[in-house]
Write a structure and sequence with these properties.
The chain contains 16 helices and 13 strands. By secondary structure, the chain is α/β, with parallel strands linked by helices. Helix 15 (375-394) links the parallel strand 10 (354-358) and strand 11 (398-401). Keywords: Glycosidase, Hydrolase.
């Protein structure tokens, strides 16, 4: 990425946009075999970008974006996971070349939730150090094939979710205590793989930049009670700092480490890991942000077993923030200023440039005639872009902004009922139709917003 350039972009992820299931040598991924709720589509067709690639990139050009943040499908690059897949590499060469021909900087993420199912079956996936070496092999293949043209790279998207979502990583241990131990072990292996990837990246893409894509956590205490404030600090360590401290410094927060050791969940390590972890650092941090979170201290005897696994501890539990507007799909509430608060804190802690890689509003958009009037999305994006501009004006190094998402994608658990796109994809969960692309009102607004800032 060039210095002093602000990138106006848009984001997608491979398993949510591509489709092309079983085509072009693509292997079976965890996202292909996971169970989705009844009445919700899977990712086998998704938005069918595999067959709409040229059209999508022309829509990007018309939109005026200067950066496309996407991800590689690990199983399109490596089939079942052990050898290169030339057809998959050709597909991404075509994507990259089309971007460059149309003045768009390609910005891929290596790992966005999808991984070879064969790894889960053969050795438990990220539970094993074998997965570390295979990820590094995969990354090296990508660097060697694409690094001559691609200079901006993301490593792992939202390690918080990647390590906790069992349907995406294959952690199906029945014993809940062992399952939690597995989660933290998998996360450690992801961090180790990322660090080794940084090292090999420096050798191959000498003029490139690389960094993690974090799920930024802006945590508020529910009350000014000292216990709730401590709960918020603990939540920040468990939901964000443990990942970014490892990415940048090669270590965990002390409180986090102590808690895992007390529970018997601290990951197994090797002495030689320490040098790898401390000597390899990222160039920037990708910021995914949708909303802030409110927590409080856990009441005695309170049941937290139904919450996501990263909330299953005695240190904090979800609270309620009455000051934020909540919507059907944004149940934590809309908090534009949280973007400013969180990015300011991240810069002060890590002193690295940042780029907003995901930020968007989910809504059950309705196509009326050939139009989608999504004024609510425009309002959301405008408010968050204003916070980015505030950060830049104050001197924080923000490299760019990418709304989630370029076009409607298959949501992880809500299919096509939950839409984020600037472009409407004309399909439903039970009827693929032709996946026609119809720019929404927000598409034209964003186009004008980009033009006004040139």
């Amino acid at each position: 990425m060039e210095k002093k350039t602000f990138y106006w972009g848009a984001s997608t992820s491979a398993f949510q946009v591509e489709g092309g299931y079983g085509e072009g040598g693509k292997g079976l991924a965890t996202t292909d075999v996971r169970k989705v709720p009844a009445g919700v589509t899977d990712s086998k067709v998704a938005s069918d970008q595999y067959h709409h690639l040229e059209e999508d990139i022309l829509l990007m050009k018309e939109l005026g974006i200067s950066l496309y943040r996407f991800s590689f499908n690990w199983t399109r690059i490596m089939g079942e996971g052990y050898e290169e897949n030339p057809a998959g590499i050709d597909f991404y060469n075509r994507l990259i070349d089309l971007c460059l021909e149309n003045g768009i900087t390609p910005f891929p993420t290596l790992y966005h939730f999808e991984m070879p199912q064969k790894y889960v079956e053969d050795f438990g996936g990220w539970q094993s150090r074998k997965c570390v070496e295979l990820f590094v092999k995969y990354a090296e293949i990508c660097f060697r094939h694409f690094g001559d043209r691609v200079k901006a790279w993301g490593t792992i998207n939202e390690q918080l979710i990647a390590s906790a979502a069992t349907d995406l990583n294959g952690n199906h241990e029945a014993n809940q205590d062992e399952k939690m131990k597995n989660m933290y072990q998998m996360s450690y292996h992801m961090s180790l793989a990322e660090k080794k990837t940084f090292a090999i990246f420096r050798e191959i893409v000498k003029d490139g930049k690389i960094g993690p894509i974090c799920s930024m956590q802006v945590i508020y205490p529910e009350t000014p009670s000292p216990n709730d404030i401590l709960a918020a600090r603990n939540a920040q360590d468990f939901l964000q700092n443990c990942f970014l401290d490892m990415s940048v410094f090669g270590r965990y927060p002390i409180g986090y480490s102590n808690y895992l050791k007390t529970k018997g969940w601290y990951p197994e390590t090797k002495a030689e890991d320490a040098e790898v972890l401390t000597n390899n650092r990222p160039d920037f941090i990708g910021i995914n942000y949708y909303c802030s979170t409110c927590v409080r201290t856990l009441a005695e005897g309170e049941d937290n077993s139904q919450l996501p696994p990263f909330y299953r501890n005695e240190l904090f539990i979800l609270g309620n923030n009455p000051y934020l507007k909540k919507t059907e799909w944004m149940e934590f509430g809309i908090d534009p200023e949280g973007l400013y608060v969180g990015m300011r804190d991240i810069y002060e802690r890590y002193q690295l440039p940042m780029i907003v890689t995901e930020n968007g509003l989910a809504f059950s958009d309705i196509l009326e005639g050939e139009k989608v009037s999504d004024h609510y999305r425009i309002e959301y994006l405008e408010q968050h872009i204003n916070q980015c501009e505030r950060l830049v004006e104050e001197g924080y190094p923000v490299m760019g902004y990418c709304p989630w998402s370029l076009l409607d994608l298959v949501s992880s658990h809500q299919g096509f009922k939950k839409r984020y796109g600037l472009i409407y994809v004309d399909r439903t969960d039970d009827d693929v139709k032709e996946c026609r692309r119809i720019p929404k009102e927000s598409y034209f607004w964003y186009k004008d917003r980009i033009q006004s800032n040139k």
